[in-house]
UniProtKB/TrEMBL annotation:
InterPro entries in the cross-refs: TraQ_bacteroidetes, TraQ_sf
Protein name: DUF3872 domain-containing protein
Pfam families assigned to the protein according to its UniProt record, in alphabetical order: TraQ_transposon
């Protein structure tokens, strides 16, 4: 009787172990991410160019993940370009890995520099949009107060 209980216990344990196994390997593909900027000046003059240092912070690394970046000029008028003077087109996305001098030595923290050249005497507001190939999207708003409008207030 004791032997039957031991064998039944072993069989029940094996059944639970084998029944709980799944031969499918689950790989997380879509990781959360954010776009941040380093310190930026508050004001901008007409025809001035500002360096915008951006960092894509990823909570994990999936090798097949791809990112695209774009911008929307919300207020004012200007141009955005990278270190090789390749211009981004307003309201169009382009692959992040096409940005000149993208530092991707750490796959979870990619740093790159864009420049904004102001073409207006008004305040400038830019919305950067970054999206991955899993349809996740993040935005970063950057604004500069026009020095000409600041002078008028005084």
């Amino acid at each position: 009787m004791k032997m039957k209980l031991i064998i039944s216990g072993i069989m029940l344990t094996l059944l639970c172990l084998l029944g709980g196994c799944d031969d499918k390997l689950e790989v997380q593909q879509a990781y959360d991410f954010s776009l941040t900027s380093w310190y930026l000046q508050k004001t901008i003059s007409p025809d001035e160019t500002v360096e915008i240092r951006l960092t894509l912070n990823r909570s994990g690394n999936y090798e097949e993940a791809g990112y695209q970046i774009g911008y929307i000029q919300m207020e004012g008028s200007g141009e955005v370009y990278d270190k090789k003077k390749v211009y981004l087109v307003n309201r169009e996305m382009q692959p992040l890995d096409s940005i000149a001098e993208l530092d991707d030595s750490d796959p979870c923290r990619q740093v790159f520099t864009l420049f904004y050249h102001n073409r207006s005497s008004k305040n400038a507001e830019i919305k950067f949009v970054i999206a991955d190939n899993f349809h996740q999207e993040r935005e970063l708003d950057i604004s500069f107060q026009s020095e000409t409008e600041t002078d008028m207030e005084l």
